[in-house]
Design goal:
The chain has 494 residues and is an alpha+beta fold. Helix content is 31%, strand content 13%. The strands form 4 sheets. A 6-stranded mixed beta sheet has the order 9-4-1-2-3-10, with helices on both faces. A two-stranded antiparallel sheet has the order 5-8. Strand 11 (329-334) and strand 12 (337-342) form a beta hairpin.
Length: 494
């Protein structure tokens, strides 16, 4: 019958329960297969990103000894149109490199912060990162430290700007400035740092702001004489502009040395804040923010690698394996300008204990230091002193009375007063007991002209073998000022 025929057709078209089960199972298998493919793709992408990251985040190229640059070659290759002594980049006696090879996993970086004109280095440090022993040492060099160069102003903080002037190519000026600064720093510490990072003051402001400010315990109220800033003492979260004023404040009793200590303490806090696990992935962002005000021969991958190594140090920047230091110095004057004079023996000892990258120790022959006792003698630790006194011509051959020994020369042996050799350089890194040689060395009369070697006196109470005084001792008509104490030390800020 027809009705039965239609029913059979409907039943034939109706799917069976078995076919329904097979359809559901096929969909589940299809979803699992898609999930596996997605996971495989994600794994491949992750592996690729990790591989790229490992290739990108890497240590810098191994350090190599720098090429020797003689005074003659500097003069021949200099492209500066102005050849007056003020702009001469030549170093009088470039010392040789230390013996030995570089230590494994040991890196040194020149760190500098420049002023508004991007000429002088207001902050100057050399940092070492020992990845084998997980140690970081940072040594500060006062910006007014005298270096043995031909130019008129013999302060190391002028080196960066002088180097920049040797080329008209703006894209190379920062590199030229950094290389000149490294060469002059070498005369003080005995080696050239392998890498450099120079930050303009705007970059410092941007960096502090990019990490959300820095909480810091301000040691004293800081207010400049123009009332452009006023930072109260105590714990405070500093903005970038406030942090810059903190690091440039000069109102300490101990002058520039108090500022150096504040900068070191502030940098310790900044290091701790940057190298936290949460902030290390943000380092590319930080570098991008300050990139317009940062000059370095380290790429972003190198910086992240160093940040990871610093983060791995037990205790971080606050631990005992992260240390700040300053070279031992004395203070005085040369041709009316305030200078800081490195103490050779103490500086060499500090460098060998902290940032020396060589397997052999730094020696006296590796530095060329002019100290306070030989500033006007025509000799330095290299035997060739650019800060040589210029004697006045004698008008008459009239006898000159023997100069009366100064207060410094009547000290008994063992006193930390002015001496005639490096072993007798006076006082420690603060320089608070250094004499103020207020009269420039060339102002001495002919009879008081300093000899080519620093004169040594075994018995201060007895007259010297010759009437010649110490190189920095003024003539009898202008007796030296008493040693500058903490309240009267000259402001060595140039």
């Amino acid at each position: 019958m027809k009705i039965f025929g239609n029913r059979s057709k409907r039943e034939a078209e109706k799917p069976s329960k078995t076919s329904k089960k097979k359809g559901k199972g096929g969909k589940k298998k299809s979803k699992i297969k898609i999930l596996i493919i997605v996971l495989a793709v994600l794994a491949a992408i992750t592996l690729g990103l990790y591989t790229a990251y490992m290739l990108y985040v890497r240590p810098p190229a191994p350090p190599t000894k720098p090429p020797v640059v003689s005074p003659q070659s500097m003069e021949q290759t200099s492209s500066a149109p102005d050849t007056e002594p003020e702009f001469d980049p030549s170093i009088i006696s470039p010392p040789p490199d230390p013996d030995g090879d570089f230590k494994e996993g040991f890196y040194t970086i020149l760190l500098a912060g420049t002023d508004e004109d991007d000429f002088h280095s207001d902050v100057l440090m050399v940092a070492s990162i020992d990845t084998v022993n997980q140690k970081v040492n940072v040594v500060s060099i006062p910006r007014d430290t005298m270096v043995n160069v031909k130019r008129t102003t013999k302060k190391v903080n002028a080196a960066y700007g002088i180097g920049k002037m040797q080329t008209q190519d703006k894209s190379k000026q920062a590199e030229m400035g950094a290389n000149q600064l490294k060469r002059e720093v070498k005369t003080i510490i005995g080696f050239q740092p392998s890498y450099y990072a120079i930050v303009k003051y705007e970059g410092f402001i941007n960096l502090v702001d990019s990490i959300g400010g820095v909480e810091y315990d301000v040691p004293v109220r800081m207010r400049d004489k123009w009332d452009t800033f006023d930072i109260p003492a105590g714990l405070k979260k500093l903005t970038g502009a406030e942090a810059l004023n903190l690091c440039r404040y000069r109102g300490y009793t101990s002058s520039d040395f108090g500022r150096i200590q504040t900068v070191q303490n502030f940098m310790r806090v900044v290091f701790n804040q940057i190298v936290t696990p949460a902030n290390i992935p943000k380092i590319p962002e930080f570098v991008d923010i300050i990139s317009k005000n940062l000059s370095s021969d380290l790429d972003l991958g190198n910086m992240i690698w160093f940040a990871q190594k610093i983060a791995d140090i037990p205790g971080g920047a606050s631990g005992e394996n992260f240390s700040f230091h300053q070279i031992p110095v004395t203070v005085g004057k040369y041709k009316g300008q305030d200078y800081v004079f490195a103490q050779k023996s103490g500086t060499i000892e500090l460098i060998n204990k902290t940032i020396n990258p060589y397997t052999e120790p730094i020696k006296s022959s590796n530095v060329d230091i002019i100290n306070l006792s030989n500033v006007g003698s025509g000799s330095s630790s290299s035997g060739n002193n650019s800060a040589k006194a210029t004697p006045k011509p004698a008008s008459k051959a009239t006898p000159t009375p023997t100069p009366k020994p100064s207060a410094a020369s009547t000290k008994k042996p063992g006193d930390n007063s002015q001496a005639s050799s490096d072993a007798g350089e006076n006082n420690e890194s603060t320089g608070n007991n250094a004499p103020d040689a207020s009269a420039p060395p060339h102002s001495a009369s002919p009879a008081a002209e300093p000899s080519s070697k620093p004169q040594q006196t075994s018995e201060p109470e007895k007259p010297a073998a010759t009437p010649e005084p110490q190189p920095v001792t003024p003539p009898p008509a202008a007796p030296p000022a008493p040693p500058a104490g903490p309240e009267t030390m000259p402001d060595v800020l140039g």
